[in-house]
Amino acid sequence: PVLNLESPRGIDRAQARAELDFLQNRNREHAASRTQVDDLEARISAYELAYRMQAEAPDAVDISKESEATRKLYGIGEPATDDFGRKCLLARRLVERGVRFVQLYHRGWDHHGGPDGNLVYDLKKRCRETDQPVVALIRDLKQRGLLDSTLVVWGGEFGRTPMMQGNLSPDQLG
Question: What is the pTM of this model?
């Protein structure tokens, strides 16, 4: 979830914009008399960016406007793929709105412990949860012409040997 997207109770978008404009004017007056302070302009820009993000985010995260076919493509509504499918669809919606960096997380890839310690079973489960949504994201970006300007990096745990520890019998491998 994206928290705090709504303005405080009693403050509508027009009032929030007016308050930001007032603050921007005071900051610019302050900056004009202090030309040696260069971080003030960055702060002014950050306030403006934060306002625009807060104003645009509710629409960007509303996947109810997507077609049933698109939701199905990402695996939304299916128990194994729903969570990560929603994240991938949200990533596409953010990219098409010009967000320059999107990072997705999918937990549960550390298979060195766990109750069963079954690396093969756990890997298959994680792949069932992620394969369809990731393929959908890449296909969707390509179909919309966004893959030409989007770098997709799929990464995982670094520096560990991909081998199973323990004494599982072949019938326990899943």
Answer: 0.70
